[in-house]
Structures are given as structure tokens and as C-alpha cells.
Design a protein that fits this description.
This protein is α+β, with helices and mostly antiparallel strands. It folds into 2 domains: 129 residues, N-terminal domain of MutM-like DNA repair proteins, CATH 3.20.190.10; 121 residues, Orthogonal Bundle (Helicase, Ruva Protein, domain 3), CATH 1.10.8. The protein is built from 6 helices and 11 strands. A 5-stranded antiparallel sheet has the order 1-7-8-5-6. Strands 2-3-4-9 form a 4-stranded antiparallel sheet. A two-stranded antiparallel ribbon has the order 10-11.
Length: 260
């Protein structure tokens, strides 16, 4: 599933079309679900020139000489420019390319195409996306901002639920949240209001280390805990049984020993 590390790789790929003029755009009913109609996308993008790229969390931004274009990739969305993909494979979803899974994209005056490939049909395009609904980007998160992410009145929500809240911090997905908690040795069900200062420090160190390390490895699906993400799995760190439950609406794995 594409999380912040995957979307950053998409952004790097999209740099290859900076300077290109859009000849046409297309989107099926799924990709254009946040617009008034699929035709709204084609009308809005025709004739624009891509002037730059950016990203906020899991939202890819294409700057133009007109409106900013936004692309969200859902659970299985992959960015494709010509025959190059932004990531080799996704942990969830089919690991193959099919023409019927192309949901739309952009065709440039030079003949190149930027496409969104999405088997599960959860990817979306936007025109002038609202960035105010997103928290600070996780790849640039300072310690002060992280403390604000964990702030709560009373006990507050479960740690993992807060990490997944894109309005608090943009970019953390299910796999990264589990990896951060795994590396910090903190139970993901812990209420944020009950975290100790030592746990908060450990979590911030784990967050920054996880982003750097998994970024070098190739994405959020390369975490240390991944080999044990199945019922009956044993912790790769200490051999204890892995627990599984739904936390923050997502399937969650954690160690019964070092995350106790």
C-alpha cells in the first residue's frame, strides 16, 4: 500500500514531466469521484504546463501554470510515466500491470503519458486540493511538532490511531505506524495521554530512523516487523508471539514481549 515513502518515489518520478505541456487528460468515474464529473478533469488540465512537483503526506501535487493538481493513490495506486513505475511492487494488491486497471491520467504534447494504475479503484484526482485538512508532513516532522501530534486532553486516543490521523500528521500509514511502534517498543493501543516522556522520545527516534531506513530499503513494506505480520507469527527481535487486533480501524501487529 502506498504510504509517504512510496508517494515520495512517485514525486521523484513525476519530476520527469516538469516543463511538459498537457495535451489532454482523462479519468474514469472512480478516479474523478472527488470532482463534479470525469469531464471536469479533462477540461481543467488541457493546455496546462507542469511547473513543479510537491507532496504533503500521501498526496502528490503537480504545480502548473494554472491550478495545482492533486493525486491520491488509495490502497493500490501506482504512478506510471511511460513504462516506468514509481515503485516495483506493493505489499497489498496484485503485483502485475493490467491495462484495465489504468484509471486515467495525463497525456503530454510530446506524446508521453502519466498514468494512475489502481486495481482497487480508490485512487483520486483533485483540482486545487485543500492542504489545510492535512497535518505537517511526516518526513519533515520536528520534535516539537511530534509532541503536538501526541497532545491530548485526558487519555486521548490509542497511539496508532493518532499516528494514522492525517489531520495530525500527514503520511503515516498502517505499515509505518506498526513499524514505528515496533522499533520504539511501545504497545500501539497505549493512549497518547498515558505515554511517558521516555516513550515519547523513543517514538520520535523510531519515527525518524524508520523513515530514513525504510526509504533507503525501498518503501514501507520493508520494515523489520514485516516477516511476522501473520497470525501465529513470532517477533523477529525476541521470538515472542506477535499479537494482532484492530487498532485505529486497521489490522495491527505488535510483540507481546518488548511492546508490552
Amino acid at each position: 500500500m502506498p504510504e509517504v515513502l512510496e508517494i515520495e518515489s512517485y514525486r521523484v518520478l513525476a519530476e520527469s514531466v516538469v516543463g511538459a505541456r498537457i495535451a489532454s487528460g482523462d479519468a474514469d468515474a472512480y478516479l474523478a469521484k472527488k470532482l463534479t464529473s470525469p469531464r471536469a478533469w479533462s477540461r481543467a488540465v488541457r493546455g496546462l504546463t507542469i511547473t513543479g512537483t510537491a507532496r504533503r503526506g500521501k498526496l502528490l501535487l503537480l504545480a502548473t501554470d494554472g491550478p495545482t493538481l492533486g493525486l491520491r493513490f488509495g490502497m493500490t495506486g501506482v504512478l506510471v510515466v511511460e513504462s516506468t513505475t514509481g515503485i516495483d511492487a506493493l505489499f497489498y494488491g496484485p503485483h502485475e500491470f493490467r491495462e484495465q486497471w489504468i484509471r486515467g491520467g495525463l497525456t503530454f504534447a510530446d506524446g508521453r503519458r502519466l498514468l494512475v494504475h489502481d486495481p482497487r479503484r480508490l485512487a483520486r484526482v483533485e483540482i486545487e486540493p485543500d492542504l489545510d485538512e492535512l497535518g505537517p508532513d511526516v518526513l519533515r516532522l520536528t520534535r516539537r511538532q511530534f509532541d503536538e501530534v501526541l497532545a491530548a486532553r485526558g487519555e486521548g486516543p490509542a497511539l496508532k490511531a493518532r499516528l494514522l490521523d492525517q489531520s495530525r500528521v500527514a503520511g503515516v500509514g498502517n505499515l509505518l505506524a506498526d513499524e514505528i511502534c515496533f522499533r520504539a517498543g511501545v504497545d500501539p493501543r497505549t493512549s497518547v495521554g498515558r505515554l511517558s516522556d521516555a516513550q515519547r522520545s523513543a517514538l520520535y527516534r523510531a519515527l525518524t530512523w524508520t523513515m530514513r531506513t525504510l526509504g533507503r530499503r525501498g518503501g514501507s513494506h520493508t520494515g523489520d516487523h514485516m516477516e511476522a505480520r501473520f497470525p501465529g507469527g513470532l517477533c523477529p527481535k525476541d521470538g515472542a508471539a506477535m499479537r494482532v487486533a484492530t487498532v485505529g480501524g486497521r489490522t495491527t501487529y505488535w510483540c507481546s514481549l518488548h511492546q508490552n
